[in-house]
Amino acid sequence: MEPALCYSENDASIDYYTKLRAMIAEAERRAINRHKYEMSQELGCDVSFNEALQDWQANCAKRWREKRMKRMLHSQREEIARFKWIASELAGEDLGRSAVEEWIHKHAPGWRFAWEETHIDEEDETGNGA
Predict the structure, then answer these.
(1) HSE toward the beta carbon, residue 16, CA cutoff 13 A
(2) Angle at 103 between CA 85 and CA 130, to 5 degrees
(3) What is the 3-state secondary structure (H, E, C) of 2-56?
(4) Please, which residues bridge with residue 129 across strands?
(5) Is the pLDDT of residue 67 over 50?
(6) CB-CB contact of 120 with 113 (8 Å)
(7) Residue 126 falls within a domain, yes or no?
(8) 2, part of any domain
(9) pLDDT digits 0-9 by tens, 5-61
(10) Containing domain of residue 92, as a range?
(11) Distance between CA atoms of residues 82 and 102, nearest Å
């Protein structure tokens, strides 16, 4: 049986994770800018990015990151279930864990990158970023 995941230190994986971290950082930067705007509106004066950053880190960052991760994992579980169902239908039997492992090995990195790209400016139901 193959290991669940193999993280090699080759150039491709380093490049992938560097790009992924940059996308997550950009999503946070945008959330902080939205927070800056909201603080400025609330206080009636322009708030600096550093002031907004400090307030966001102290009061919003944990919740924002948790909600974003929760949404990402929910979407990922749905995508894995779709893949498992389609693969099982094509095989004529329930492939179970092997289909899940196949999705992880073949599709997880690309899916995560695409998810981050399409959710970079996402706001939650209250209008706050992620």
Answers:
(1) 14
(2) 95
(3) CCCCCCCCCHHHHHHHHHHHHHHHHHHHHHHHHHHHHHHHHHCCCCCHHHHHHHH
(4) 123
(5) yes
(6) no
(7) no
(8) no
(9) 444 445 566 688 888 888 899 999 999 999 999 999 999 999 999 999 999 999 999
(10) 11-118
(11) 13
- The first and second tokens of residue 15, run together, are 């490049």
Q: Rounded to the nearest 5 degrees, what angle is found at the Cα of 73, between the Cα atoms of 68 and 78?
A: 130
Local structure of residue 46 (DSSP, 8 states): P
Give the pLDDT confidence score for residue 68 in this predicted structure.
94
CB atoms within 10 A of CB 30: 16
Tokens, residue 66: 């948790």
Q: How many domains is the chain partitioned into structurally?
A: 1
For residue 5, give the nearest of 118, 117, 114, 112 by alpha carbon. 112
Higher pLDDT, 31 or 127: 31
Q: DSSP letter at 127? A: S
